[in-house]
Design a protein that fits this description.
The chain has 20 helices and 6 strands. The protein is mainly α.
Amino acid sequence: MLKISNIVSQIDSFVWGPVMLVLLVGTGVLLTVRCNFLTWRNLPWALKKTLSKEARTKSRGTGDVSPFSALTTALAATIGTGNIVGVATAMVSGGAGALVWMWISACFGLSSKFSECMLAIKYREVNEKGEMSGGPMYTMKKGLKNKKLGAVLGWLFALFAVIASFGIGNMTQGNSIATSVHATFGVSVTMVGVVITVLALLIIIGGIKTISKVSSVVVPVMAIFYVAAGIIVILGNIHNLLAGIAMIFKMAFSVKAVGGALCGNIVASMMNAAARGCFSNEAGMGSAAITAAAATTDNPVRQAYINMTGTFWDTIVVCTITGLAIASSGVLGQIDPSTGQLYVGSALTIAAFSTVLGKAGGYLVTIGIALFAFSTILGWEYHGEKAFEYLMGTHKWNMIYRIIFSLVVYTGATQTLELVWNFSDIANALMAIPNLICMILMSGEIAKDVKKFQKIKS
């Protein structure tokens, strides 16, 4: 078993290596250029539309949920432990400058997120139940000129999405909740597992409409809650803020990146940060496009702009708050007295928040991890369900999927399954390959639709 675990771990490192990251970021660069930088130029307009009253209604076009609910459900899946643990890990392994490379990857990720969502809405279908079904698998099947290639890519994407939904979108999140709550509050992992399983079952059983209703409340509240706490920490360490920002930019472009100890060269820092950024906002992975396809809209481009802002909120806002809180706290590169090792992961973020908020800082970060991770479970259930529906060719088995998915949360919360986690991490990365190939092949169509909408934008 150990040998298999090592092999899977090595495969995991390979698929999330330089080739994958170049493909992810490179596709974003290509799409940004082909779209004449309109995704960047229209970001302020997109943010305004996202926050408008109209986005909370289903008054324009057809769909299952409002434009805002489609965005928050997608954000539920993307704003997760990566925003707290992932940022801290990137800053330890790649230095404080890792934050800059996360920003850069996010800028190009805007175009990837926009493109996959636009295509998913354009090629979505209405299933036998009258619900919207869409995502990269439908785009590949219907949009690619080579139908055989499209069918193969679509099937592979759906398969990897289902596998990833149980791992990255379910068990790892349940485990993060259980372990963090146990460490901070002393509640047994079994009790935590039972509670989150029951809650997940009650919400998930209602499908996308129930999930979107919960997400449209939980996601904004949890994001505001965490950002507000982070700002308090930053202001409490305001005397160190300029030095922290200077350190971030200095380390981003230095030959050696140092996070308390020598951590490697600029290329390693770039790759590590880009990986964490892509993992956090999932731009280019194709997952958010599945939820976007459920949105009520009269134009795929309009909704794609709204869903595109998910990358902005996830990385430019939430990840930045975590990064600045850590950089200004002075704990990066310090030793954790309880372990005798460098502060890493959630412990680093807790230590940073505790410099201003004291013991309450640990409580706040733990609550943030729990809320973020639970919302990820909800969002990923819908992603996996629609991929499962595509593979089965019917919606009739969806309820069984929902029940099984909910029950698996308990397994993740109470068991350490490193092999399963690595395997699902591989599936998560492999989702991106057919999605990126599809977007590259259809980049001309994407650019054409964007420029056409620019003339009628309102």
